[in-house]
Design brief:
It is a single chain. By secondary structure, this protein is mainly α. The chain has one domain. The protein has six helices and no strands. It has helices at residues 3-32, 51-61, 65-76, 84-120, 122-126, 128-192. Helix 1 packs parallel to helix 6 (128-192) and helix 4 runs antiparallel to helix 6. The longest helix is centred in the last third of the chain and has 65 residues, at 128-192.
Length: 193
């Protein structure tokens, strides 16, 4: 098996998943700003950290009450906890990594036991060529096991990178939703006065 091709495939897959997550975040941000996309507000007197909230506040203020209510309902109905990438990561971690690590452990255990048997077998030591061939086979299995272990370790690293990127974008989405909900609720309080 060519492990380098598998590694490059994993790298490519990780890049594609992170890019899809980034594109999903950009599309989410675009959709959540849909009610007031063409509103231009400039206020140079504010601190830079307040400009985003101020823009949201003024934009939502300009919306009619019915559109504000629809926007609030739309934003509150967004379910960020149940997305495809999170489920895929969970499945991968639970199924693939646990089975792979268990398989490698079993293979190393059998190889070690067999190597110990070969080392202590007096009849095989008398026939040096058979003994050398069997020991060589066991060592080849160790090397294959180490290659597979390295592949699984690198898969876990790529999984960590993809998971970190996904959780970063999910956190940005949650923050964006929370900011919008807070601004809308504040405007509703002001409208009730």
């Amino acid at each position: 098996m060519d492990y380098h091709k598998i590694m490059w495939s994993l790298i490519l897959l990780a890049i594609v998943i992170v890019l899809l997550d980034f594109i999903g975040y950009r599309q989410f941000k675009k959709n959540i700003h849909k009610p007031f996309r063409r509103v231009l507000i400039k206020d140079p007197d504010l601190f830079w950290c307040y400009k985003g909230v101020d823009k949201l506040y003024r934009s939502y203020q300009r919306l009619p009450r019915s559109m504000l209510t629809l926007s609030k309902l739309h934003i509150k109905s967004i379910d960020l906890s149940n997305d495809f990438i999170s489920q895929l990561l969970d499945l991968f971690v639970k199924l693939f990594l646990s089975v792979a690590v268990a398989s490698i452990t079993i293979m190393f255990t059998f190889s070690t036991a067999f190597l110990n048997y070969l080392n202590n077998d007096a009849m095989l030591k008398n026939d040096y060529t058979k003994w050398a061939v069997r020991v060589s086979d066991v060592l080849d299995n160790f090397i294959k096991g180490l290659d597979i272990f390295l592949l699984i370790f690198m898969s876990a690293v790529f999984l960590l990178v993809v998971a970190s990127a996904h959780f970063f974008f999910a956190s940005l989405k949650k923050t964006l939703v929370q900011t919008h909900i807070t601004v809308i609720e504040e405007i509703e309080k002001e409208n009730q006065k």
